[in-house]
Amino acid sequence: MHTTPPAPYTLPRPVGAALARLPAYPGSRLLVAAINLALARHLPDDVRTLLQGRKISIRVRDARVAFDFTWDGTRFAASRPHATPDLAISANAQDFVLLAQRRQDPDTLFFNRRLVMEGDTELGLLVKNALDALELPVLDPAHWTPHAVLARRAPRLAQRLPLPPLPAFLRQQP
């Protein structure tokens, strides 16, 4: 990775408790919409075939939320929570952000037990290798803060509003 990742951060327990009360399905729909925009068209045909009908769960441990979905042949689709998914990938929110920013290597997180894959390990390696092979832009969470989105959609309004600070663990490092 290009930069030194920040020290591990865990969401405060009250935040996780509040997030755990949210319904799961809307979050899964939002995640698959993002994955479909960013990844679906880039997946090789052999990966698409192997993902067909497989149940995947992304579990954010410290936020106490899970996102469940499947590949329907043309796109990822949100699904009801899976009691036993084919593949469950678990980590804290910060670790998922670091992975998306490509500031942390998944193997390092895995060997440090910060990233856990349960279920079909062959499917897990397929997903990991497919993501590693894709040339995707690095996720910059600062681009998606409410203020940044407002600045793109209504710049005059955004200029009049105070800019809240971005949490340190979300900031890109040079």
From TrEMBL:
<dbReference type="InterPro" id="IPR016830">
    <property type="entry name" value="UbiT"/>
</dbReference>
<feature type="domain" description="SCP2">
    <location>
        <begin position="50"/>
        <end position="132"/>
    </location>
</feature>
<dbReference type="InterPro" id="IPR036527">
    <property type="entry name" value="SCP2_sterol-bd_dom_sf"/>
</dbReference>
<keyword id="KW-0831">Ubiquinone biosynthesis</keyword>
<dbReference type="InterPro" id="IPR003033">
    <property type="entry name" value="SCP2_sterol-bd_dom"/>
</dbReference>
<comment type="similarity">
    <text>Belongs to the UbiT family.</text>
</comment>
<comment type="pathway">
    <text>Cofactor biosynthesis; ubiquinone biosynthesis.</text>
</comment>
<comment type="function">
    <text>Required for O(2)-independent ubiquinone (coenzyme Q) biosynthesis. Likely functions as an accessory factor.</text>
</comment>
<dbReference type="Pfam" id="PF02036">
    <property type="entry name" value="SCP2"/>
</dbReference>
<dbReference type="GO" id="GO:0006744">
    <property type="term" value="P:ubiquinone biosynthetic process"/>
</dbReference>
<protein>
    <recommendedName>
        <fullName>Ubiquinone biosynthesis accessory factor UbiT</fullName>
    </recommendedName>
</protein>
